Fold these 3 entries.
Entry 1:
Amino acid sequence: MRYVSTRGQAPVLSFEDTMLSGLARDGGLYVPETVPTLSHADIAALAGLPYEEVARRVMMPFVGDAFDEATFADLVTSAYAGFGHDARAPLKQLGPDHFLLELFHGPTLAFKDFAMQLIGRMFEHVLARRGERVTIVGATSGDTGSAAIEAFAGLNAVDVFILYPHGRVSEVQRRQMTTPDAANVHAVAVDGHFDDCQALVKGMFNDFAFRDRVGLAGVNSINFARVLAQVVYYFTAATALGAPHRPVSYTVPTGNFGDVFAGHIAKRMGLPIERLVVATNHNDILDRVLRTGEYRTGEVLPSISPSMDIQVSSNFERALHLAYGGDGAAVRQLMEELASGGFTVSQGALQALQETYASGRASEAETTATIRAFARRTGETLCPHSAVGAFVAEQHLGTTPMVTLATAHPAKFPDAVEAATGVRPALPPRMADLMDRPERTERIANDLAAVEALIDRSREAQAA
Ligand SMILES: *Cc1c(COP(=O)(O)O)cnc(C)c1O
């Protein structure tokens, strides 16, 4: 399996090198050169299997020779052993044809754990074999960072620096990043918003001298290995609902487009997905581009679903690459126009996008009303992101079963949930002391040179 850049000008890489490098050197994102497919019979055979077995069968064709089958099976098994639910991604019913896929039973209570727990183990295995050491940098609007810190804390071959927007993550999210005490993980509070953090990470990757000096690696959803791990639960949910014999649709609370793009890969692999509905909060750039073809960035507005507060959605570039039939030059042109404010998708590409994706948005008031309504109607307490999804899903219900992805546990966003329902959601018992643990963080200006200097200093201190 070979991986190519969406912009067509970076070296073609193996899975292993794609995973370790993150962003391509031409500024693009790596995608599989061709997406492997599973037959109707292969998919039918997944129904009822343990999550780990489905994960192995779905991911193995992408991994190539990076791991042998037995090693990969071990990594997958250990990745999900710490989850708080035997089904890993249990499916619940919300209405006659509306289901909720709970993706928040991992160690940091958001879907990011599905990918990060596996990536941590894959990195450790590959780096030990190569005798190498890397520095992971990541930008987070809250959940990626906590999942990465949790997955990499205490590993030997990896230093981790997570940039988060100061004052713009929930207290639970912040504490999940600042309370692990392993010396190799660092939570860095940037004076800016999430897009600034993401731009700093891209800036570090594009500073080749720095990149090579520290052995930079990325675990943001620009890393294809993360997208891959998220493909699996589209298969477990669909086969539980009758696929491949009947189609399924999904509504996905979306920010950086990684989770919903994993659904697109599942569809390309042969899973009968009728529609992928992209759900946004009032930062609705993705809803607008999917309806009109106009991608114009604006101001990031804070919301009660902060993991979706975004104006530049990195993985959308991967969907564009597919919509433009793999034309790297066309994608490069769009991304150049984006640097000066926005672009317009061609008619043909917009049509291709709309064959796979639908979209909708939820205002803050609609999100709160949805949390309240589902608690009353179904007894399920939704986090604000999942509520954005459930609201948009209800506008797309039809004859095909609809699965809304529940991306985080309500206790990660207790203020918004309490405001909606009057009840403060409790943390699961295994992390009940989170609010009492000591915190450790470093605050820094929104400045590339300052962040690079901080990373250099910390690495020297560790080496000394
Ligand atoms: C990361 C995140 C999202 C957005 O996912 P993307 O893959 O960035 O689109 C939505 N909800 C929650 C709770 C998240 O942590």
Entry 2:
Amino acid sequence: MGFDLQPALQKRKADNLYRSRRTLEGPQQPEVVIDGKPVLAFCSNDYLGLANHPEVIRSFQNAANQYGVGGGASHLVNGHSRAHQQLEEELAAFTGRPRALLFSTGYMANLGVISALLGKGDAVFEDRLNHASLLDGGLLSGAKFQRFLHCDPASLEQKLARTEAPRKLVVADGVFSMDGNIAPLKDYAAVAQKHDAWLMVDDAHGFGTVGHGGRGVADLFDLGMRELPVLMGTLGKAFGTSGAFVAGSEELIETLIQFARTYIYTTSIPPGVAEATRTSLKILEQDEWRREHLQSLIQRFRLGCEQLGLELMASSTPIQPIVMGEADKALSFSRKLEERGILVTAIRPPTVPKGSSRLRVTLSASHTEEQIDRLLAALEEITREDKA
Ligand SMILES: *Cc1c(COP(=O)(O)O)cnc(C)c1O
């Protein structure tokens, strides 16, 4: 009786798709101890090295003294602290929008926003490589769900032209999380406006890493609120903390407060996380050298891979995947790197399409040139062994 869970687990293993976790000792940084072994890691999303920044930590500690730890209630009950309010105001100013609203996670923000804006009879158009949370949000909303070809405004336009839904929402990642490329948002915005649709962008990986002062893809493409009414970002990546936000008009934010179920029915993030994020936002904006150093590491890594004949994706962001093809090849490469003390995760289906398994290398401003060279040297050894 009961569920027979074994067959699906066995199949995952047989397909080289089984996932398991490792235990990290200590903070997120390039040199970490994982499962008791010291390794040089290229897999965190802490692109600017703020997750373990002394000032961010101090703000977190001070806030714990002032506010305690837990948020204690949802925002609409009495869990909305001064710290949350101030962070929202600062995120609104940062994004150049009238308002911003905090969510507990990016996943919840995406589910909540899309299902608050759309319902049965509406239509949602998603880039086929969108983050799982955007796809799930679209499905949950009950709107007619359509995917268009990756980074293809013509494919989007074809689908938009054929719909008569009253509300149409176009949804895309700003920087694609598994590929590192940037969506053609100027074109998406133009097509969306032409067909009277709204555009929503999830800029989880663009905030902090691209645009002036790390203002993300909206700044990069100069997209104001008219072209890009729904702008979402996460705090767990370049911000180095945790949580997410949506920025937009007064009406949009009030709509989310009233109708986004993942906003309403959940506890606010700890006020200390909000205070830590206020500090990391300041550093993220001010420390231009972090973005400059990161860009120089990206150039160094790409040049090195090119010299080794490794296939990289067309990415100018800190996400620099090496294309492997089949899942077993990506896994074996990742294992060989680990034998050499280097950690890079193999990304396999269903996270990425079949046949496009990859090593997802992510670089951070906290890496040094010497560390990039160590990665390149290990890649060279493994490639040479593979050929021999
Ligand atoms: C990480 C990520 C999310 C989820 O954010 P969390 O705060 O980790 O839940 C959403 N969208 C994209 C594109 C992401 O990379």
Entry 3:
Amino acid sequence: MSKLAINGGTPVRSRPLPPNYPGAVVYGKEEADFASEVIYAQSPFRYYGPHMKGAVEALENAMTRDFGVPYALAVTSGTAALIVAMKALGIGYGDKVIVPANTFLATAGAVVCSNAVPVFCDVDDSLNLDPADLDRVYDEDVKAVIVVPILGNPVDMDPVVAFAKKHGIAVIEDVAQSCGVRYKGRYAGTIGDIGTFSFQMNKIITSGEGGAVATHDVKLMERAIRYHDQGMIRHRDRYGIDSPDDAFAFSGQNYRMNELSGAVMLEQWKKLPSIVANMKKRHDRIADALAAEIPGIRFRACPDPDGCIGSNLGIIFPTAEATASFNRALNAENVQAHILYGGKPVYMNPSLLHRRSAEKDGFPYNYPFNKPVVYTEDMCPKAVDLIPRTTYIPISPILTDGDADDIIEAVAKVHRELQVVV
Ligand SMILES: *Cc1c(COP(=O)(O)O)cnc(C)c1O
């Protein structure tokens, strides 16, 4: 018997593990050098300057080359990327968009800010969207489905894409948390009609803030470029886009990425393969050892384990209470674990549950939909059940094998001493 740290015993680790910022913890000379080149070149704007370095464009080219997708556009955030994606698809007032019940507030918020209305699809044991629930939420007002690979595990895309094809709706992949995830060999974000990425600090690679969209469709790319840059297209020759503004321009935003972010992001992009390889290696080491040590331990399901990037290990406990005590005890051993989003489906956020936007008169919820939008707390029962009993252990790309072994030891210790039933 070894006494739990939470009960006054000696913690498995004397010091915490590295913080959970996979891209930022590998910042180094590469990011610093290219960012300072941009400074010395006095050219922080992507479209003009005295000695342009072309950092943002180089980032986009690296993305298209490495992810096997013809078009990528860097923007200012993952939220901006979602809004650009919806505007590229022509989604707006009078449209509904299917959003998974387990996601960050931004996924659903971006739908509302695009003047459409989110409707919520349940999750399955993968904690990602359950394709079997799509029929329940679909009606003729639905124009797109957003899938969200949560914390490094792919979404089961085949049934989602088949469903979308059958109904003639678009698939948007919100890959904010999962850059580098693959599904059946293809990169998440390049499988649906349009993929959106975030480079905020909590994500896999980062410039503090930033984002991108990716697509195979030049028409979507043209609309994305226009929406992100006040309706304009500055480098038409780059994509062979020759549509005249007179006929094609519309009012847009300024979601342009700056060159300092582009410089940092290009160097982060080059590090993505090693970040993913390191996370995946430790993730699998920990998962394999725990499976051997704790018979019956239940991991979060994954439709394609090879495509998982290993940024987090998800464990499902029988009750929310068991999960909470496990997390408290594990954190006292100096190994982090946490549930997501306060243990609740995204639609439990007051702004969504009460159907509020920044606009007057209930816009865009006031549209006379054929089937009115009604939210109830229990509309996605599996999400209500699973989210508070799924804990995630972050796996940093700079963990050593020794750190991974500490995680194994701590989880096994807490499991044994708390007698959590799996
Ligand atoms: C972080 C996140 C976003 C928003 O990204 P930002 O760059 O912070 O705007 C969108 N969707 C999901 C699933 C996220 O985790």
